[in-house]
Amino acid sequence: MKARDSKIQRFRSTTVVAEAVRNLISRPVLSCAIALLSAGTMFASIALTALETNQILSFQTQLEERGIYVQTVAGTAGTPISATRCESLNMIEGVKAAGGLVGASSVRLLSHPSVPVSIVRATPNYASIIWPETRSMPAKGLIVGAEIAAELGLVPGAGFVRGGTDSAKLDASVASVAKPSMRDGNFDAYVVEPVSPRGQVRSCLVEAEPGAYLGVQQLLTTWFSDEVVSVSPLYALPKEGLTPQQQMQSRLSQYFPFGAILLVTCAAVASWLIRRKDFALYRLLGMPPRKLFTNVFSEWLLTVMLPSSAGAVFAMIAVAPQLSGIVLEAAVLDAARLFALIWLVPCLGLLLVGGGSPLAVLRGKD
To answer: Kind and range of the H or E element at 287?
Structure first.
């Protein structure tokens, strides 16, 4: 009975944990190397995920500016389509804006009779698709392209009076001067006049939300009832290019946690294998498997789990300005994968040091 009580005292949890700490202190270089590797892999996992995701989002922003989510709907053989149906697309969930092109004509201003000016008549929201910074076309007033504004010296608030004896004299004022368009550079030389969505339009521009692009594209093929239309992208990626959604699905950083856990596991396993005779001696002295696991778990907690947690905190601080929305979601997901896999390491450690004959291990035969 006394021997049993002595054994229980000898292998109390506090004693086992203290022994694990002494083991780590006895090999400071190896212990620090594993801790630094654990912290570094977690830091790198989160940082690389944030970096790559931000690059993808930046690429998506560039594509949005170019108009990759904008579709042009036009009647086959140049036939016009319903202006009302085009305008009603603005009420559809997933559609950011829709506007129709009514027509175009060339005029000359009273102040510059020698310079022909192209006037484009379009329904509201058309200009906001061509020039996203304008958001929505004003109810009254003209939106002038940057090129023609510079040539004629037009500024917001300036009068716009057509000269000559043309029958459809246009008297209006300039509501705004748009920046150079990244979606259709031809409009930089045009003046856009907003008109009511009545009758028919030559074509309809429809900009979809990024996540709803495919659904909107499919909708457009049947939206104009019996009218036969063609749907084409305003800007298309090169054939070998990937969309931002495809890039997110195939990003390399999502596989980094698996490589990281492999490195950490190899380092921890190497540490335990080097000291396999120590663990064999514990077993020979009567340490039960549960306490042996406590010893292994304590070493794992100090050299892997805590440093990994510290690495995650430092990574979050380092990339904090970038952590928003989808970037934060991707970083947390990859970190969660790594943390989930790390919990398997002490179980593997117990299998390595708790198997075989302790005497055979001490003799170097196992």
So the answer is: none
